Amino acid sequence: MVIRFKFKKFGPVVYIGHLDIMRFFQKAIRRSGIDAAYTEGFSPHLKLSFAQPLSVGVETDGDYFDLEMNSLPDMENIVKIMNDQCVDGIEVLNATLLDDDTVNGMSSVKAADYIYYFEDLSDDLDLINRFFSQDSFIFEYVRKDKVKTKDLMEDIYEYKILGDNEMLVKVNASSAGNLKADVVTEALEKYGVSAKCLKFKRHDLYTTNENNEFVSLRDQGKVYD
Q1: Which CATH number fits the domain that encloses residue 148?
Q2: Domain span at 33
Q3: Are residues 72 and 141 in the same domain?
Q4: Residue 176: per-residue pLDDT
Q5: Considering its fold, how many domains does the chain have in total?
Q6: Which percentage of the chain shows pLDDT scores above 70?
Q7: CB within 8 A of 68, min separation 6: which ones?
């Protein structure tokens, strides 16, 4: 049996790298006393996997890890049990007892929502709408000293203006075509959007169902808040 935990990361903790976040939860799980499963052999370790690493410095309201269990803990209180072991800046939001046929989060992620915070979007709304309405936008950018070229519209699935200074964008987050959140802001700037992006955070991660519809990783079993 597997439990999927959804957690948020905020404040100074966002500057801690993914490997240290993994080590933190390994220790928190051990301290919690829940009956988590371990591998066999000379150096056993928790059967724990994270859905997708997040860049250092980025906040998240929607990251996940899957934990295999030997026996079920008190599911009605599992969120409190885990949060009692957490520190300021890391909070477990809910736990999902996964259906038996659920693929682990790492293998099933298809999309991610990011919320972008701008100084003021009111003067750029028409331009932003035109940008996201395009059938194609070939964008060239540099990552790790390599020039990459991508048609962004193939990897942008949805956008919503949430207010004068907030925007949500759903992008491809699969292993085959992961679109980094900051590439979107670079493209908007190149297109002529003048509003400065102050920061962005990951809001949620999604897989797809049998109808190829996006489904939050949270909703693949029974959820306990």
Answers
A1: 3.30.2350.10
A2: 2-102+218-224
A3: no
A4: 85
A5: 2
A6: 100
A7: 1, 2, 36, 37, 47, 48
pLDDT tens-place string over residues 96-117: 999 988 999 989 999 999 999 9
188: alpha, beta or left, given left = phi > 0 and alpha = psi -120 to 50? alpha
Q: Mean pLDDT of all residues in the chain?
A: 95
Q: Is the separation of the CB atoms in 60 and 52 below 8 Å? A: no
122 and 46 belong to one structural domain: no
- 79 and 126 in a common domain: no
Q: Which residues contact 197 (CB under 8 A, 6 or more apart)?
A: 116, 117, 118, 185, 188
Q: For residue 143, name the pLDDT band (cuts at 50, 70, 90).
A: confident
Mean pLDDT on 136-158: 92
**DSSP letter string, 10-53:** -GGGGGS-HHHHHHHHHHHHHHHT--B-B--SSS--B-EEES--
Closest CA to 60 of 114, 138, 4: 114
> Whole-angstrom Cα distance, residue 19 to residue 128?
36
Report how far Cα 5 is from the mean position of its chain's Cα atoms: 12
Residue written as tokens 């899957």? 66
SS3 58: coil
With cut-offs at 50, 70 and 90, classify the pLDDT of residue 146: confident
